[in-house]
């Protein structure tokens, strides 16, 4: 009987493997007559080209089309690498307080609905800067094929308070890094409340553990010289806001000082311009959140939070003017960092009040061009350069043979107008083709669910339940 079960299992396994192989062999796409913007360093546009995609990779460019290939018409369209958002906070199931063993999450989310706005906007990779164990679960769902979603890089927050884990001294900080490494996190995010000694210890330990560091500049450095926080292996600043918080001098000269120190320390920058622009807009009126493009795809719990517990509502004229000064300084920082030759990456802080997953990347790209980057430089910030910092540029970030087929098919040329990144005809995610009609259906499902369940989610009631 035991031998029969083993034989049956082997037959099933062999059948499944053959089925997978047969599906893979038939899963060949040919994008014909497409204009390729490869986003390599040379970035020479390849006009009227053919791109072959086999399984989940770019198989060939301008080679003969196999007979069994599925044809995609690329006439008058443009192909770019999938976009990378280098700063996101994706909704995930969570239990802020464990009341008893076996208790489930306080709030659960549909992972597909969380990921759909990314895919619909051509975001095929995200850098999760508040990663928890639940995000590992989401990534696993995507890898298994249960959910259509972006690649996810995960950073663990380490801070002096208001974070998990909390590190109040260098020994705690080093242990937190080691634990994060053991738990499978790939990056460390240093946070606002670290003291100076612990900040340096965390970064030093991360280097020893071969983990790159991104993050905030702790408030402990306010009033000190900028060179004190530009320390080796602190390789990416998460917001331009981290720099504007360190000074009251919003001059171009100050921006140039920060840029020179960053260049010397090999510290890259995520300007995150949309963050302060969004804060300013919602401080003026919460109607600016409601009218945001894509708001209907935001989970109703977050809609409730953003509109009923918004800390920027009712801001004084003086506060709003202060936000505008910071916004202007962030533009100067982009100009100064470009001038100094410091790499700039695109990130949105999506998930923060008023910043919508997926849709916000296009706002950020536009703001970067307005701050002085060329359209090509902006595209590089969300493709090749981002992949380079994540150390996966051998896999994604450019359109080259052998790389994963993470691609966005556009109706018009984004090198002419960066707003054309919004005009998406279809998306390849890990070799899976999602055309415009399917994108629209996926978005419609999210919107319909949100509308049907809006009354079930109230942020203030949730907080009251936590207290009881």
Summary of the model, kept short:
The chain is α/β, with parallel strands linked by helices and 468 residues long. It contains 16 helices and 15 strands. Strands 1, 2, 3, 4, 5, 13, 14 and 15 form an 8-stranded mixed beta sheet that branches. Strands 6-7-8-9-10-11-12 form a 7-stranded parallel beta sheet, with helices on both faces.
Kindly describe this structure.
The structure is a single chain. The protein is α/β, with parallel strands linked by helices. It has a domain at 83-397 and 445-454: TIM Barrel (Alpha-Beta Barrel), CATH 3.20.20. Helix content is 41%, strand content 17%. The protein has helices at 2-26, 111-120, 133-144, 170-183, 196-208, 241-244, 252-265, 273-284, 287-290, 300-308, 317-340, 360-370, 375-381, 384-390, 436-453, 459-467; strands at residues 28-36, 46-54, 57-61, 70-73, 78-81, 83-88, 123-128, 151-158, 187-190, 212-215, 234-237, 268-269, 407-410, 424-429, 432-435. Strands 1, 2, 3, 4, 5, 13, 14 and 15 form an 8-stranded mixed beta sheet that branches. It has a 7-stranded parallel beta sheet with strand order 6-7-8-9-10-11-12, sandwiched between helices. α2 (111-120) packs across α15 (436-453). The termini are far apart. Residues 1-25 have low confidence and may be disordered.
């Amino acid at each position: 009987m035991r031998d029969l079960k083993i034989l049956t299992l082997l037959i099933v396994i062999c059948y499944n493997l053959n089925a997978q192989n047969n599906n893979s062999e038939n899963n060949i796409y040919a994008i014909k007559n497409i204009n390729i913007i490869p986003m390599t360093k040379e970035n020479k546009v390849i006009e009227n080209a053919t791109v072959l995609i086999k399984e989940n990779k770019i198989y060939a460019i301008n080679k003969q089309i196999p007979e069994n290939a599925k044809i995609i018409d690329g006439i008058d369209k443009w192909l770019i690498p999938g976009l990378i958002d280098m700063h996101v906070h994706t909704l995930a199931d969570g239990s802020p307080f464990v009341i008893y063993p076996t208790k489930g999450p306080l709030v659960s989310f549909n992972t597909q609905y969380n990921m759909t706005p990314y895919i619909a906007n051509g975001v095929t990779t995200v850098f999760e800067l508040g990663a928890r164990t639940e995000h590992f679960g989401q990534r696993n769902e995507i890898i298994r094929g249960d959910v259509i979603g972006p690649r996810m890089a995960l950073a663990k927050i380490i801070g002096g308070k208001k974070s998990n884990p909390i590190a109040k001294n260098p020994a705690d900080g080093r242990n937190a890094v080691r634990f994060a490494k053991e738990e499978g996190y790939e990056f460390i995010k240093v946070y606002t409340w670290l003291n100076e000694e612990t900040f340096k210890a965390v970064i030093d330990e991360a280097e020893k553990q071969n983990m790159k560091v991104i993050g905030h500049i702790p408030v402990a450095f306010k009033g000190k010289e900028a060179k004190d926080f530009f320390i080796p292996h602190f390789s990416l600043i998460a917001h331009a806001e981290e720099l504007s918080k360190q000074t009251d001098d919003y001059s171009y000269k100050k921006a140039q000082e920060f840029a020179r120190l960053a260049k010397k320390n090999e510290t890259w920058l995520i300007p995150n311009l949309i963050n302060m622009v969004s804060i300013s807009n919602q401080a003026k009126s919460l109607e600016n959140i409601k009218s945001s493009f894509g708001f209907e795809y935001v989970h109703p719990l977050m809609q409730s939070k953003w509109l009923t517990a918004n800390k920027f509502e009712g801001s004084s004229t003086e506060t709003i003017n202060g936000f505008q000064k910071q916004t202007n300084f962030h533009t100067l920082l982009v100009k100064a960092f470009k001038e100094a030759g410091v790499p700039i990456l695109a990130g949105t802080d999506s998930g923060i009040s008023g910043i919508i997953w997926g849709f916000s990347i296009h706002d950020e790209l536009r703001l970067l061009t307005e701050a002085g980057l060329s359209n090509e430089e902006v595209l590089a910030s969300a493709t090749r350069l981002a992949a380079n910092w994540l150390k996966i540029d051998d896999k994604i970030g450019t359109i080259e043979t052998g790389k994963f087929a993470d691609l966005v098919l556009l109706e018009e040329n984004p090198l002419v107008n960066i707003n054309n990144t919004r005009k998406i005809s279809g998306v390849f995610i890990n070799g899976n083709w999602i055309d415009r009609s399917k994108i629209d259906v996926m978005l419609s499902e999210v919107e319909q669910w949100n509308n049907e369940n809006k009354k079930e989610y109230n942020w203030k009631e949730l907080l009251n339940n936590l207290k009881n």
